[in-house]
Amino acid sequence: MPRITAIFCGLVFATACATFYESNIQYNRQFEQGNLQQALEELHRNSRLQKPQVRFLYYVNAGLMHSMMGQYEESNSWFEKAFLFGEDFRVNYAREALSYITNPMVTMYRGEDHEHLMVLYYKALNFAKMGRFEEALVECRRLNIRLQQLSDRYSSENRYREDAFIHNLMGILYQASGDWNNAFIAYRNAYNIYRNFYTGKFGIQPPEQLKRDLLRAARMTGFTEEYQWYKELFGIEEESFNPEAELILLWHNGLAPVKDEWSINFMIYRGEGNTIWITNPDLGFNFSFQVSDEDRNSLSQLEFFRVAFPRYVERPLAYQSATAQIGDETFMLEPAEDINQIAKLCLQERMALEFSKSLIRVALKKATEYSVRKENRAMGGVISAINAMTETADTRNWQTLPHSIYYARIPLKAGKQTLKLNLEGRAGTHTEEFSYQPEKGQTLFHTFTSLEALQPLR
Questions:
Q1: pLDDT tens column, 171-222
Q2: What phi, psi does 437 have (nearest 5°)?
Q3: Rounded to 5 degrees, what are φ and ψ at 75?
Q4: Of all residues in the chain, what percent carry a pLDDT higher than 90?
C-alpha cells in the first residue's frame, strides 16, 4: 500500500486542478505588468512553459514579447518556428490515447485557427516596421494561403473561416508597397467579410477608413465602374488625400481571454436489464448504453461523476476608445478585430467534439475502475480517486494576444513631428506621446499595446 499511496500522491500533485494560466502565474503577472524582460526570462527559465506539449505557445510568447520590445528580427525568428510547427504538425497518437485515461493536457497543443493567423500577422507587421515590404508581402501570401485553407475546411457561413482584419492588413501592406491591384482585392474582401460576417457575429462594422481605402484603390487601379458603385454604396466622396507621408497606427487593446474549466456532474444509475443511464436532469442530458451482467453487478445502484470542459473567460477592456492628435487634427482609432469573440467562437464551434471526447474519456476511466474493483475493492476505490483528481479540461491558449485591435491611417509631413494618443474608458484616461521623422513618400507602421484589463468575467 505505501507504493500505491506514493503513486497516488504523485498523480494528485501532477494533475492538480490549476489551469494553464494559474500554473504559470509568475510569468503571466510579469507580462501583464509590462515587465517584458522579466517575463521573457521567466519564459526561458520555466520548464513547464517549454514542455513539448506547449511548444507552439513557447514560440509565440517569445515572438510576441520580442516584438513588443522592438526586437523585430528576433521576434520573427520565433514566429517562424511557430509557423513551421503548424505546417509540420502531426498528431501524436500515443499521447492522444494517453489523454483518454488521464486528461487532454498531455497532448501536443496544436494552436487555434486564429492563433496561426496571428503568427503571420505579427511577422508581416514586424517586417513593415523595418520598412521591408517585400518580406511583409511574403507573409501576406502565407496569410492568404491560410485563409484559403480555412475557407476550404469549413463550408458553414456561421463558422470562423474568413478574417476581415487580416484581409484589411494585407490591403494596407499592398498599398504601402505600391501594388494597388492587390490592395483593391484585399480591401474588397475585407469589406465583404466585415459586412456579411463581422457585423452580425461580432458587432464590428466596416471601418470608415477601409471604405476610403477601397475607393482610393479602385480609382488608382482604374476600376471606374467599381469606383462609382462603391462611392454610391458608401455615400461618401473620396477625399483629396495626398500626404507627404503616412502612419498606420495600430492599438493592441487589452488581453485575450484565458481558457478556464467548467464541469458538469453526471449521475450513473441502473435501468432495466443491462441498460445503464448517464444523466444530468438540470441540463436535460440523458445517455444510455448496454453493459454485460458482470459489469452491471459491479456498479452501485447510483453513482456520480464529474466531466470537465474548457471555456473562455473574458478579461474586459479597461479602455474602450482612443483618439490620435497631431497638430490641430484628431483621428479616431476604429475597431477592426475582436480576438476575444473570435476565440470564443472557435471553441464554441467544436464544443460537440469536446463534449463527446470528454464523455469517452470518463467512460474509459470508469471501465478501468470497475475492472479493478472486481479484483480488489480497495484498489478500485484508489483508481476512482485518481480518476477524479486527473479529470481536467484543456485550458491552453495563446493568452498574451490582445483582446481587440483598433487602427487609424494618419497623414504626416516629412520631418519630425509629435503625436498624442489619448485612451478613454472605465480605467479613466491615459495619454502617450510619440515622435516620428518620416521621409517623403514613406509609410510608417507603429503599434501601441495597452495591457490593462478589468477583473475576468467568470
A1: 999 999 999 999 999 999 999 999 999 999 999 999 999 999 999 999 999 9
A2: -140, 70
A3: -60, -45
A4: 60
CB under 8 Å to 275, separation ≥6 — which residues? 288, 289, 290
CA 94/CA 91 separation, integer angstroms: 9
> What is the rounded CA–CA span in Å between residue 172 and residue 239?
17
